[in-house]
Structures are given as structure tokens and as C-alpha cells.
């Protein structure tokens, strides 16, 4: 749910997640992304959810602290999370000139002096060289539907979509996509 230019940094930071429990574990973070991308994604202190979707600093910190980024990470409460802000302040963005525009590298210097590196080029789920597991795919799907469907509704929709070729019609998919939204909407109209 954020700028694709940053996906390789998010995935690389996620590879280093096991070494970070709290912002104080980290002395510094250097993210290297292509120079042609930096103008749009260097936003050290995002002011709102939309701004955070283009903040390499915020998104890298989020991934280091929780190994993923989802829709809920762009709420007002999420972008003002003090732990994320403390770690974001330690993230420095640097350009690279590699031929691969998608290449990203994250260098983590821990408080104890250890240096760790991770890199990525193909964002998770973007191709056969870096596929999502079934569990990751399901988690992402449920994260995308969480604002409008209950977990049970989301699971039923996913199951139906995964068996699409066996469905006699697409009508059920439309009904499932509405979930209890129709009920919620009619309840709101009564207020």
C-alpha cells in the first residue's frame, strides 16, 4: 500500500528484522536506492498517511520493527508512533547508480557495533524469483480487506477467488465483496 520505489528497501529491512527489537538496538540505518527515485521518496518526517507512503525513512523503520507494512500503518496513530519515529530518525537515504532501478540495499549498524546488510531487487510477490508464500499472500489479502470485511468474510472471499474456475458464476464473488457492508450501510442510513 505504498510507493513501489521503496519496496526493495522494505523487503531488505525485513530480512534484518530479527536483529531489531527496539529502536535503541540500532545506531544507524543507511538505505541505498537509485538516484532517479530519491526525489519522490525522501520524506524523513511524514505529516500524514499519504506522505508516509512515500517516506523511505518511515517505511524502512516500520519494516525493521515489524517485518511488514500494511494499510493500518498509515493511520494517524501509526504515523505518530514514537518507536517508529525514533528509528526513522536514524535512517539515512543515499543514492546508487546501479543499472537496476529497483535495487535497494539496507545497511544496519547495531548499537553493539555490528554491521549487517541486506539487499533486494525484485519486491516480494512481484515475480517468480521472489514469490509470496501462501500464508503471506493470505495475510496481504486479509490486510487489504480488513477495513470493509470481517475476517470470516475475507476468508470466504479468498477461498472463493482461489477456486474461481470452479464457480458457476461470478455473482457470489460480488455478494462476498459486499460482505456485511450492505448491512452496515443500511444501519448508517437509519441514524
Describe this structure in words.
There is one protein chain. This protein has 191 residues and is of the alpha+beta class. The chain has helices spanning 7-15, 38-41, 49-52, 56-66, 76-79, 82-88, 134-145, 151-162, 171-178, 181-190, and strands at 26-34, 91-96, 104-110, 115-120. A hairpin with a 4-residue loop joins β3 (104-110) and β4. α1 packs parallel to α4 (56-66). The model has no long low-confidence stretch (mean pLDDT 89).
Detail the topology: elements first, then pairings.
Blueprint: H1 7-15, E1 26-34, H2 38-41, H3 49-52, H4 56-66, H5 76-79, H6 82-88, E2 91-96, E3 104-110, E4 115-120, H7 134-145, H8 151-162, H9 171-178, H10 181-190
Parallel strand pairs: 1-2
Antiparallel strand pairs: 1-3, 3-4
Helix pairs in contact: 1-4, 4-6, 7-8, 8-9
Number of strands: 4
| DSSP helical segment count | 10
Shape: elongated
Strand residue content: 5-15%
Main beta sheet: 4 strands, mixed
Cα Rg: 19 Å
Mean pLDDT: 89
Helicity range of the residues?
40-55%
- Are there runs of 5+ residues with pLDDT below 50, and where? none
Structural class: alpha+beta
Q: Walk across the major sheet and give the strand order.
A: 2-1-3-4
Give the termini distance in whole angstroms: 32 Å
How is this structure best summarized?
The chain is an alpha+beta fold and 191 residues long.
Features of the shown structure:
single chain, 191 residues, 4-stranded mixed sheet
Amino acid at each position: 500500500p505504498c510507493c513501489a520505489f521503496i519496496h526493495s528497501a522494505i523487503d531488505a529491512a525485513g530480512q534484518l528484522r530479527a536483529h531489531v527489537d527496539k529502536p535503541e538496538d540500532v545506531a544507524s540505518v543507511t538505505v541505498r536506492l537509485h538516484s532517479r527515485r530519491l526525489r519522490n521518496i525522501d520524506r524523513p518526517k511524514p505529516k500524514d498517511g499519504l506522505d508516509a507512503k512515500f517516506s523511505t525513512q518511515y517505511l524502512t523503520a516500520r519494516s525493521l520493527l515489524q517485518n511488514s507494512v500494511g494499510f493500518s500503518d498509515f493511520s494517524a496513530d501509526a504515523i505518530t508512533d514514537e518507536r517508529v519515529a525514533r528509528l526513522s530518525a536514524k535512517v539515512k537515504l543515499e543514492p546508487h547508480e546501479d543499472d537496476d532501478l529497483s535495487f535497494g540495499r539496507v545497511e544496519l549498524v547495531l548499537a553493539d557495533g555490528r554491521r549487517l546488510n541486506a539487499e533486494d531487487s525484485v519486491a516480494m510477490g512481484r515475480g517468480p524469483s521472489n514469490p509470496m508464500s501462501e500464508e503471506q499472500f493470505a495475510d496481504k489479502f486479509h490486510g487489504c480487506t480488513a477495513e470493509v470485511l470481517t475476517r470470516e468474510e475475507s476468508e470466504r472471499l479468498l477461498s472463493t477467488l482461489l477456486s474461481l474456475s470452479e464457480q458457476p458464476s461470478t455473482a457470489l464473488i460480488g455478494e462476498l465483496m459486499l460482505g456485511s457492508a450492505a448491512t452496515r450501510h443500511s444501519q448508517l442510513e437509519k441514524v
